[in-house]
Amino acid sequence: MERLIRRRDFLRLTGGALGLSALLTACGGEDSTPTPADSGSPSPPPAASGGTSDGSAASPITSPTTAGAATPASSASGEPIRIGVLLTLSGPQGVNGEGNLRGLTLALDQAGMQFGGRPVELIIEDSAGQPEQAITKTRQLIERDRVHLIAGITLSNEAAAVRDILVQAEMPTIVTNAGLQALTRDPAMRSPYLFRVSFANGQYDAPAADYAYETLGYRRMVLHAADYAAGHEEMAAFRSRFEQAGGEIVDEVVAPIGTQDFGPYLQRIEQAAAEADAVFAFHGTSTDAIRFLVQYQEFGLKDSIPLIPSGADVDQSILPEIGDAALGLVSGTLYTAYNDTPESQEFVEAFTARHEGILPGLVDYAGYIGGRVIAEALTAIDGEVENKEALLEALKAVEFTGPAGNFRFHPESQGPVTTILLCRVEQLDDGTYANIVVDRIPDFDDLSF
Fold first, then answer.
1. Concatenated DSSP letters of 338-371
2. Where does this protein hold Zn(2+) 7 (predicted)?
3. pLDDT tens digit string along 65-94?
């Protein structure tokens, strides 16, 4: 039975406040989470069952009053603004969708869940990580629910599957996770109706290539990744920036998703690294990343061959499982809860007030930025979503300072122009492993690699 979040289940999960209860925070690239971390993080609550597999409607959700929110939506009396939310909320990728939803609902609730006197209804659908189901749910949101805009889309293959449907329907869409590069980088695929707030695969790892060459002095590197689309796009992005800086890639080593024993691949990396200064690795926020980093240390490579992991591989959600194997590693990321700015502190405080015991990670952050973007645009047009041209122009014009830094859309790609944070994993006095910011790269866009 598929999982649809109905109002009664949503309120049960949240205790009456928008956002989901303490769930494992995972991130890293849409498809960069082949399997979620299986221990050492808060356990998900029971599944919100009660949905149907026959295409029956998911109940719309209108925000209840929550602490710290603006005027509750219940005071608005105009025609509802219907926002379709399409996310992977079940299956091995479900942690990504849950995190996006936490961030999205927090931002919209902070804005009051009403614009121009019109309440917001979120109509939430679970794609289950399946492109065919994503197609079905997209059509339902457009044709049956008559939503005014759509937010979400978790996986690259889902984004590719629903792209034409969204464009043909002239549906304003805010992608909050899927990293498919072509969606905003390829002129043949980008569209005035498609905006992305998260990243194109490799966007937050590419600056680490510059850091490796310019700051760490590496000149020759080995690339390693999980053997699937996002992994290859991540390696290509890192290669592009590293070679532009003057470096050389001596080899690429890939491993299947779900690899338990990385020994054979570590041997190949060790052999290739005899002619290299360091290794870049990508597995996403996953048990694969945990295993790889732990085994990299156990194999004796950490002390002899410097490693630069993807920021997704050392996301806050899985750092406790990686432990000392992550200490000292430098990576690029979209966000860390230890970003010491007023905007970040406010975000962390608001988030942890709803989700005690966990810190926001990459997907929570991306969902939050998506909600902020929607709120800014709807405020600018005073909730008049039927004026599609005005809505699209308002979206293009969105610009604000968020938890990571300044955010806006690139005028050509309509992908994110954002601050990339370079972080080093350190252990705090209380024993917590944390991504501490060592450098910031402002205004980094998805056409820069």
1. T--SHHHHHHHHHHHHHSTT----HHHHHHHHHH
2. 270
3. 232 333 344 466 789 999 999 999 998 788
